[in-house]
Write a structure and sequence with these properties.
The protein is mostly helical. The chain has 10 helices and no strands. It is about 85% helix and about 0% strand.
Length: about 260
């Protein structure tokens, strides 16, 4: 039984790798079979050659993008968590803020970037603010939902032994909220990558998003796809770090 489960895990791990290899082979075969011009669709060999031939360009811009993601994402997550806690434990504050939070949630975030451009100008600082706004809302929504999951009988039991609100929040409410908090954190990480790229298109002049924009303007599909590859690797690495923290310190992971 154990051996069967082990084989199943190995096969389950190899299937995504096989699909990836099949996709790359299919991509290469299509460019060769149909003689697709490289300015329309470069082959995987062309993309790899570009990455290997000019690694400093992509590494430098990947660091610029990572800087925006980390600074903006951290600010958005921290701010979102603080606001969620205030909403969970201050009913009057929740009633006052919630309608505006819903309004801001449905507002297309890309529409905010030109506004930030007017008031804050261009540069990394403006991009960080935009990423923070992108990362803010998923964390707020998920954390508030998680803090509301504590069973009423658990809170009643703690009140019966005179447990304070802070102790209740740390030892009970947060325990029930952790799955939702991490679900929101994963969404925030993913959206921070998207936000950084959008910001680099509109308000910044560096990073992988800006490199993709330059490639588009100069009809360099190879530059664009190479930047996209690096961007995907960067995003997956950040997501994997959050998932690892969840497994390592809390012993579980939510299937997304």
């Amino acid at each position: 039984m154990v051996e069967h489960a082990r084989r199943f895990r190995v096969v389950d791990s190899l299937l995504p790798l096989g699909a990836f290899v099949a996709g790359i082979v299919g991509w290469w075969a299509m460019t060769v079979a149909f003689s697709v011009p490289s300015f329309l669709l470069p082959s995987p060999v062309d993309v790899v050659s570009l990455l290997v031939g000019n690694p400093e360009l992509y590494a430098r811009n990947a660091l610029f993008t990572l800087e925006k993601i980390l600074y903006g994402g951290t600010a958005g997550v921290v701010g979102g968590f603080v606001l969620a806690v205030c909403m969970a434990y201050l009913p009057w504050f929740r009633r006052a803020v919630y309608p505006y939070l819903v309004t801001a949630r449905v507002l297309p975030k890309i529409a905010i970037a030109p506004v930030l451009l007017i008031y804050l100008g261009t540069g990394t600082g403006t991009a960080v603010v935009f990423v923070a706004l992108i990362a803010f809302f998923p964390l707020v929504q998920s954390t508030v939902a998680g803090l509301d999951r504590t069973p009423p009988e658990q809170r009643a039991l703690l009140r019966s032994v005179n447990a304070g609100r802070i102790r209740t929040a740390l030892h009970v409410d947060l325990r029930y909220a952790l799955p939702d908090v991490f679900a929101g954190l994963k969404q925030s990480v993913t959206l921070s990558v998207i936000g950084a790229v959008i910001a680099e298109w509109i308000v910044a002049d560096d990073g992988l998003g800006f490199l993709i924009l330059l490639g588009s303007e100069n009809v360099r599909a190879d530059v664009m796809i190479a930047a996209l590859v690096v961007l995907v690797v960067e995003g997956l690495a950040l997501y994997a770090i959050v998932a690892w923290i969840q497994r390592r310190f809390f012993g579980y992971e939510i299937a997304e």
